[in-house]
Amino acid sequence: MGLFGTGLRRICAVVAASTAAEMANLVRSALRQTRTVELRLDCLSSDAERVRFLAWLRKSKPRNATFLATCRRREGGGKFAGGVDRELCWLIQAREAGCQWCDLEVETLRKLPGQSVREYPVPSHILLSVHDFERTPDLPRTINAPAHGGVDAVKIAAQARSIHDSVRLLRLARSSRNFVAVPMGEAGLPARILALREGSALAYAAVGAATAPGQVSLHEMKHLYRAHALTRRTPRGVDAVYLPFLVRRLGDFLAAVSEFGIRGFSVTLPHKQTILKHLKECEPLAAEIGAVNTVVVRSDGSLHGCNTDYLGVLRALEKKLQLQGSRALILGAGGAARAAAFALSRAGGIVSICARREKAAKELARAIGGEVLPRRALRTEFFDAILNATPLGMHPHRGISPLSPGDLHCRIVMDLIYRPRRTQLLKLAAKKGISTVSGVEMFLAQGIAQWEMWTGKRAPEASMRRAVLAALRAEELLRKGTHNDTRTSIRTATERS
Ligand code: NAP
Predict the structure, then answer these.
(1) Which residues are catalytic?
(2) SS3 breakdown of the chain: % helix, strand, coil, rounded to 5?
(3) Which listed site, 60, 120, 314, 459, has its alpha carbon 20 to 30 Å from 357?
């Protein structure tokens, strides 16, 4: 068993607020999800709030919980304005209030006589923390905590400027004992989630506002990523997680594929074409389309590429339209337009391309044996289906439509955009009584195909649909909320002026 226990106990909820009352609420909320909680005393706005909060903690004595007290000084990247003696004073009071652990930054330890904190009655277990908010420094091969100044565990939280940086920190977690690895920043996010799997004693997640760059919420860490339940064992079910990688350089990501144990990945813009030269095998159709959105990693580490956008378009449209012999117009000539054009022409459709760059439209039309149509022709031509494969109307430009009502002479309009689910184009079409297909249908169908390629198992379609719709709905509600907030603050500002 690890230092903090097993399973969910290794997910540490970070509680940070400016008032004692808010902190207490966050602690209650955290304890409903995990039993390990870090208390950021330095985030409280004053000593009076710290006194109030610790009095609450002492009185309420949450049972069966592990509390880590932190009162990080500014020098160590925290918010506490006091000196070392004041920091220690608050940690001592935290012990009296029931905290079993404290986080002590290396900057403080260095200032103590003999570089040891054992003389002070701070919480009996000590996590020595090292923060680097700029970069991931050179790291040792291994860290075994008791050897370091009598502390019980060591934490390194370092900004990952690249995926490789986060891999270095995970390697250290794998080879060390009583060690906590915290890769910070967007590039470090997947490693932050996989740290527990690699042997980190803890993974941190925010209950309220994030306290470190790239920190994920407690809800996401537990329910979306299930960080505490991931293993490297060969599973009977699906022991896997789908993680977002910020890929600035494709080479940086590809070098980390085996290290992370990646078995498959989706490819998004701008890497859909560049990935082609890194593949050992490419499905002929994906090669013809010239874009790969799905890669399967074979057991020998080689990469096999395919295109499920193609399948996504087919699945989404064939429910509503007999594709053989139908006439379709595609707006745009980018990656998604190419997948759609190949899909429809292979299914026996007659495809026209309309794009702002005539050269790109001509090239695509030639590749599929279709025709190019100038924009003005849309006023008079009739189609079975019109597909928007441009980003016009996508969030945040949601009020925009690539076509006006006078351009819509067709039976079906499909928008490949799925943020928002109902675009302005789909609203205009519905107003004219035209049947509509949202990009969500394509998104789901291509994701289902990806799942089956990666796992070799049938995808749980109904659960995937529910999850995607719930996530998009939540996003839209959040945006509406933010939008209303902006309007409120504009109104308030106007009223004041
Ligand atoms: P892309 O490769 O960048 O292609 C975009 C196309 O739209 C290009 O032809 C581009 O023309 C054109 N375009 C961009 N801005 C325009 C404007 N203001 N006016 C006219 N044309 C414009 O992007 P993509 O990967 O094909 O993606 C296109 C859309 O499909 C995105 O909204 C994306 O979210 C969506 N999509 C959805 C799914 C799904 O599963 N539902 C899958 C893939 C993509 P230029 O070449 O002249 O810039």
Answers:
(1) 272
(2) 45, 20, 40
(3) 314
